[in-house]
Amino acid sequence: MSEPIIRLSAVSKTVPSTEGPLTILHPLDLDVAAGDILAVVGPSGSGKSTLLGLIAGLDEPTTGTIEVDGSLVTALGEDALARLRSASLGFIFQSFHLIPSLTALENVSLPIEITGRRGATARAAELLDQVGLGSRRTHYPSQLSGGEQQRVAIARAFANDPPILLADEPTGNLDTATGHQVIDLLLRLNESRGTTLVLVTHDRELAALAPRRIALEGGQVVEDTASRAQSPSLDGAVEIAGDVA
Fold first, then answer.
1. How many CA atoms lie within 13 A of 138 on its CB side?
2. N vs C: which end of the chain shows fewer Cβ within 10 Å?
């Protein structure tokens, strides 16, 4: 068996508070294999976003070690962490985080240009086609619906072909129907590219679309379940993408 692409060993997070130390995440072990789709569910304050931030190296654990794509995150300096995030991680956020002064095409091109790779515009155009927004390349975020903005964000997350995609409440600002379509698109793109997806959501119905899910409560894993639901077929991924408002 190959080594997991994400491995957390005895990882915890405690922060100071007015009433003394507050444990946000109790010690946990977690392995995620390459190509897996993992949904992390739980109520607000359960430690979901903290867990994602630790995996991304955006926060430091109080205890334990974190390995991501062969690198020991907890031993890296800021420059090395930035290189790891650029090469190995794609991010999708609840609030999209698109640059308002750039078109959809420019938003997707930007992370490619930052790495110095050639063909950024062609690559970005291809990705927008794949998420069903080929006709909206020259539109600015303010000219796009919430679902369309999130699809631009998804295309941007795949810009540098990262082996790992981290999504933090990617449907939080979308209505239920659009949210389901965005998640379906994520699963389809993820399967077609063989990347690993870690999806944080408070919505168990959406999480049930993932083959594996863990539930957090009070900073502790209370459930680790393999879903009976199968990953969706790749057939018609673009057509489904085109239906998202």
1. 0
2. N
